[in-house]
Structure formats: structure tokens, C-alpha cells
């Protein structure tokens, strides 16, 4: 649904026009927001203007006069009403999107409750949000292309708070079982299904390999017969970050099936795998080919070929030297997309 650019332009066209010079930056986001933390906090710590964080469901903590507002994914009734009331006094409003909200409405591979939430948001707020939005910051090339005729659209990539790369962490104990993980969230239901034969084959072939997967009761039931697969409930974002500092895995998995919603995703899973000190196997093509160099800092394999993933896992399991070399190659991406408007809000010495 809404796969084409023309569909998007019909439903969302940026109509906010502003000519005031910004004197402050206001970031509107949910109280716990991985998107805000991954894309904005580090950058805005280097802003040349005061930065204020506004939590959904609460009143804005500062005046919106001459404010440049960044909406992270969502608005609600209270926040949008305040923005509309002050729209003549704003200096601009950017909508930061790291998922294709509209595509979620018609993607039957997503959980029904998630689709319902997205539908409620889109149908209730999209046109009003478009009326105050001056530009969109899109977290993937596909999403930017889909939105291209909706107005000014710029690419933005993650730039999280720095964490220890795998090469900067203590070496894993060779006496411990090799650990493989897949931390797909609720919107990755098809990937957990797709991975089952891959995981089962490796589980049965290599008794020393253990797996961890995030999932609910249905996922636990699916993997129940595999005794070395731990299915754990989703962590809160703060707990996930804390665990990444205390826990290390050897290999991370990032399959990505070709669905309307998935095709617009960002390469954030690369950071998740790096956080846990691992090297990854990623679905080839967008978005991961922006940051993964096959055979250097990870492996790229076809998401339509489970046998290729089995072979890649076997290679990393059996060839310790190769795995160690790739793990040492996991690095910060060299090219990070930054919207011009956001760059103008940062100090001169922090834009590189």
C-alpha cells in the first residue's frame, strides 16, 4: 500500500513554509525513543543553539517562538495542536522517519496490532502533520525515493553515542560456546520464520553453538525443539543498551525479506550487531550494502537463499581466523548522510 511516489505525494505533501531564523531546537519524541537516540542526541550535543527535548503526551517545555522543531516518528493530539497554534512563529519543522509509516498499513507480514497503530496514526494525523512540515529526513534511500515528491526530502543515517567496537572489547574466551544471535523486534515476524531451518541445521550440525532470539510465546513454541536456542522477551531500550555493554556474541544475523515495509528500512541492525561485539551476516542489497563490505566487515548473502546463510554460518563457525579478521573489521561507516538543514544547526567544527 502506498508503494509509489505518486501515492505518497497524494497523501503527504510538505506545506509548512517558514522564514524565521531559529533560536532554539525542539525535539519531539516518545519518552523512550531509540530513533531519537540513534539519530539525534549525539549530533545535537554539538548544536550551536539550545536544544530542548519534548515528550509526547506533555506540554512543550519551552516557547515554540523561533524554534526549529524535529518530530521523531510520531505526533499526538496535544503536541500537534500546540505546533499548529504556533506555526506562524516556527522557524521550521522536520519529520524524521526511520520506517515507512504508510507502507505498514497494507503490509500483511506485520503484526496486526502494529498495523492498527500505524493506521490510526496515519489516518488521524498525516494530513495535519503535512500542513506544518517543511521537510522530511528519511533514514534509507528507498524511503527517500518514495517520499521524493512530498516536498524537501533529505537522507539521514544513524550516528549513535560512541560504543566499543568489537576490536576494542576483550577477546571472547575460546573455551566458551560460540554464540549466535538474532534480535529482530516485533516487526520482524517473517524473518524469524525464515530463519528456523537455518538455525535448525546449524544447531544440529554444531553441538557447541548456542543461539539467542528475541520473541514472544509463538516464537518460543516455534523453536522449542531446539534446546540450545534461547528465546527471550524484548528488552526495553535502556536495558538493551546496558546488556550490550555486558554481553558479547560471536555472530549476529540480519536477514531482511523483501516486503513493502522492509524495503524502506535503515541499516541500524549493523549497529546492533557491532554493539554486542559480533560480526554479522546480512541480507545483500539495500540497506546493508551501504555499510557492509562483503568479506571485510561482515558477510552479505541473498535473503532468498537459506542454504547460502547456512554455508556462511558454517564458514564463520569453522574458520576462527576468518571470523576474527571480519570481526576486527567491524567499524564505523565512513559516509554518514546528514540533512543540510541539520548540518546548519550544528557547530562548524562538528559537521564532518
Describe this structure in words.
A six-stranded parallel β-sheet has the order 2-1-3-4-5-6. The chain folds into two domains: 5-159 and 336-350, Rossmann fold, CATH 3.40.50; 166-329, 3-Layer(aba) Sandwich (Rossmann fold). It has helices spanning 5-11, 34-44, 77-85, 112-132, 141-146, 189-205, 217-222, 237-246, 268-275, 306-318, 320-329, 340-345; strands spanning 24-29, 51-55, 67-72, 92-97, 135-138, 153-155, 178-182, 209-214, 229-232, 251-254, 279-283, 299-301. Helix 3 runs parallel beside helix 4 and helix 6 crosses helix 10. With 352 residues, the chain is an alpha/beta fold. The two termini are 37 Å apart. It contains twelve helices and twelve strands.
Ordered list of secondary-structure elements with their pairings:
Layout: H1 5-11, E1 24-29, H2 34-44, E2 51-55, E3 67-72, H3 77-85, E4 92-97, H4 112-132, E5 135-138, H5 141-146, E6 153-155, E7 178-182, H6 189-205, E8 209-214, H7 217-222, E9 229-232, H8 237-246, E10 251-254, H9 268-275, E11 279-283, E12 299-301, H10 306-318, H11 320-329, H12 340-345
Parallel strand pairs: 1-2, 1-3, 3-4, 4-5, 5-6, 7-8, 7-10, 8-9, 10-11, 11-12
Helix pairs in contact: 3-4, 6-10
Q: Which class best fits the helix and strand makeup? A: alpha/beta
What is the string of SSEs from the N terminus onward? HEHEEHEHEHEEHEHEHEHEEHHH
Helix proportion range: 25-40%
Level-2 CATH architecture of the largest domain: 3-Layer(aba) Sandwich
Briefly, what CATH class of the largest domain?
Alpha Beta
Number of structural domains = 2
**What is the general shape?**
globular
Strand content: 15-25%
Strand order of the largest sheet: 2-1-3-4-5-6
Low-confidence stretches: 1-6
Q: Distance N terminus to C terminus?
A: 37 Å
Mean pLDDT: 93
User: How would you sum up the major sheet?
Assistant: 6 strands, parallel
Determine Rg (CA atoms, Å): 21 Å
* CATH topology label of the largest domain: Rossmann fold
Count of DSSP strands: 12
The helix count comes to: 12
